[in-house]
Protein 1
Amino acid sequence: MKKKNAVAYARFSSTLQRDESIVRQLESIHEYCDRNNLELVEEYIDEAQSGTNDRRERFQDMIEDAQNSDWDFIVCYKMDRFSRSVADNMHYKKKLSKYGIRIMSVIEDFDDSSPEGNLFGLMTMGLSQFYVENLKRESFAGIMQNAKRCMTTGGTAPFGFNITEDLEYEINEHEAEGVRLMFKLIIDGYSYAHIINELNNRGFKTKFGNPFTSNIHDMLKNRKYIGEFVYNRASKKNADGSRNNHRKKSENDIVRIPEGIPRIVDDRTFFTVQRMMMNRRYQGYSNGTKTKYILSGLIVCSNCNFSISGMISYAGRKKIPRVRYTCQSSKKGRDCNVNDINALYYEKYVWSIVDEILNYKNIKKLQDLINKQLTLFGKKLQEEIDKLNEAIERNSKIVNELTERVGSLRSSADKILTEQIGEYMDIIIEYKNEKMYFEEDLKVLEYIYQKDLKQRIKKYRNIMNSGKENQLLLRRLIQRIYQGNDFVKILLRLNAFIPFKLYNDLTYEKSEIRDNIAFKYNNKRIEPLFK
Ligand SMILES: [Zn+2]
């Protein structure tokens, strides 16, 4: 069989800091041709010229030569070597396809004869023109290693980074220690207030040279800490020079470039903290102040979904203090008929369950219970993954259909189409992220041994006996308590007992019929967790 013919096109523009050298580009093209059994018949090289215009001499030569050639492919290192603008790319692609020539890229290596490949090709080119996300994370990371795009748009670097003279991000080692400390302390369960104290005690200062006060919550959400460069399109000029900053910055306007800048924390730590912060928000635990009502923030009213928290009131002429847990909906101007619960008995009740779990005598039962939950959990994870795969496939189909309808990319109808594609891509990416959490958990899942349990029970027992961090302990062991008028449901967090980290909570639900007013009277009849 006759080998197919290919020509190489390489371009180097001096303005790009991390540009691949011509040599490197050509090497890759040669390798690529060997691998794909292509005969490389010619090389076209443009050096040190801007890619945004067409005055690339060798490029023009190539286009002209193409007309009467017997080439099958033009191979470039990255699509953006071939052309920076989507419109130009479409133009030349069309022209070349008339001569039976297709453009190939070593890095992207997609098949642009399929709609999906075509879309991917389009998307990898015009960062400033189109919404881009990592359809193919691996190859994308390479494409996006582009200094120009990973430079700051000015302003102050986030804590943990410096901005170099070339406007690039660089890790500030001292501050990075502080960043890692923050993440670690969150995982260890400390409150924001505690963490802020810790940072200040250790002499860390904000970028403005001040002590930390609040808002480390927002800092912890910064994806730059996992090396993601976030490029905000809305604040940048459009291709036609206009600015579109009239609408709010939706996710569509944001281009994320994984591994665009150096990272400070690993993914697992980062995402674990994101999940934990989400839970905290729900638990209303973010104020960090220690309350004497240790169940505050843990109980949710199953009647109205507001939290149930502790309060003190003074009854009668003698002003006898009464501490109780009460639904907070009334504070928000709503009515709820869930009765108050005597705090003393409620706490006693919860502690009795904790005491039961942390009892060495029950270790075998606890082991069985957790392993049983792990099996169920594994099944559940697989189900979720399957569901997400279906959803991803469904949405990918839509993207492909829309892509086929995109024409020259110059009309406004096409613009709307590409915007729609962007929205569906968002959905796909969200699903993929979600899937990642499940898959990661599935990977580390294994049964636990009694020695794992023993170690942890000992640790928790010590905390319990010292009485110092009881609130923390409860939050580690209990995810949520749902309280109704005639039942109580406790979601135990079994994550506290397993030797590997999970993104998702592994829970066990203990529920029982329990009239909350009568907590006091049937205190002795607590249904045991282990029967
Ligand atoms: Zn309520």
Protein 2
Amino acid sequence: MAGGANTLYSAGIELAVRVIELLEINRDLVLARELIFRKYEFSPKAREMATLITNEVGRRWGVLNRMIEEVQEEPLSRSSSLLRAVLRVGAYEVYYNNKHPNYFLKALTPFFKKKRVKRGFINRVRYVLFGIKKFRIKPPQDIVEWAFWHLFFPQWASQRLIDQFGQEKALKLMEQMNQHPAMAVRVNTTKIGVRELASRFIERYAYELEISPIQPFIKLAKTYPVMRTPEYEAGYFTVQDPNTAVGVVKLLKLLPQEASILDACAAPGRKSSLIRQLRSDIRLFCNDISTMRMEKLINDFQRLELPLPYLTIADAAKPPFKIQFDAVHADLPCSGSGTWGKHPERKWLTTPERYLECVQTQRTILNSLVPLVKPGGILLFSTCSIWREENEENVRWLEENFPLKCIEMERLDPSGGSTGFFYALLKRTC
Ligand SMILES: C[S@@+](CC[C@H](N)C(=O)[O-])C[C@H]1O[C@@H](n2cnc3c(N)ncnc32)[C@H](O)[C@@H]1O
């Protein structure tokens, strides 16, 4: 490779640029990576490199945009989508990864040839990247601006975090969401013990791991390709964050033998299969509005070799049930702000008002689900949002408007790859 840029690096950044270009359209980094990795054949090492780079570009999305726009003195919207993607990846590589602009450009030469880009395009990239190399962050005026440049959070989000949690906790949360993403698996204890699977992971694949205090989970030190192992095929585990299991485990402790549960927004079925795995006696009904996501639930139950629940596909705001249940699980669609650690691009690609639309949807669904809880039964309400409006304020609204009493609620903070999660258990009083 000319100029010393090696082939692996060339492949890694080509993939990264393709992913970042697609991200602008589909606004989901995991999905963009999946689609690009499926379409273009590159080595696992190139994919690994592209995954790392695109995560970091996603995390700094708004900061990179600002740097580029300051250097080129022109909004990015005036550039083509390909130029924007090359500049974003290039700015990350030059500013944060200490790559020389010429090294980056030479590594992209084969890609530029495939794309038949003009000389002017390359000159523009070179000009901007040399500007980025000299870029200096101006002293921030306040903590929100400091968090923008140093913790990579949009101003509206850090301001909301400060308003809700106070400055100290907000800064801690932002730092936690920037930690290196870990992953966790839930052991399918109907097939294998937690310690036995942990030993296999260590002996066969040298995974670094620890057994989670939340059972039956194993926390892995980083994102390993666990879904390509024979153990995954054999249904020994499913990928799930332990924080998201706590509410379900507590609910099951409150329910008598052969109780009925309606999991109203169940797909892709992580928590439903946990219910089935921990309590085979439960009469489980799973519903979701999305057929595609419901297919994932069915596939996962089959892979885990767990008996399928009763299935319906319907809008939970118009539930097709004439019976009531001992428990209703409302794991509701939400702003997903608790997942920003794992999906760092989302904080930039959402709108500040998104959570308000979510509260509206959540209340519409809850309004229809509460009557399906038997008197004396339990409503388990949960979100993966960190915003008070979607969590504590919804619980308050439920207590004020329905015969429900909150018996427990908990907010589990996001950290590293762990999802920020909220759940509340409410008992129907009459
Ligand atoms: C947070 S996810 C549920 C995750 C799932 N409980 C699990 O543990 O794997 C929210 C789900 O709600 C579904 N959903 C969104 N709006 C809905 C509606 N109006 N009625 C039913 N399901 C809905 C989505 O398709 C999505 O699968």
